[in-house]
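Transcriptional regulator
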Amino acid sequence: MGKVEYTAASAADGVEQAFKMLEGRWKLVILFHLFGGKLARFSELERAIPGISQKMLIQQLRQMEGDGIVRRIVHHQVPPKVEYGLTDWGQALCPALDALLTWAGQRAGAR
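Tokens:
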């Protein structure tokens, strides 16, 4: 697969689409809890993210699962166990978000 050639418009559109997948008050927080190959049960995420409701956590996880960022792993046992983790594509967001964090920190340091 060759390198994609972008125009200014197609590059802007691509980045905008990526940002739309990450929109939502909690999606980035969820991502940072799952980076590094971590798996977490729903209740663990709920406890780790103060202020998030069950309904919102379910909604955000489903959206990220639908976008291919998060995977839902069902362990068929009694009682059933469900864990959430990042897909390889979701994990690949880590360096991009780290670069954004570094970039934002440079502005904060320049003030």
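The first strand starts at residue 40 and ends at 41.
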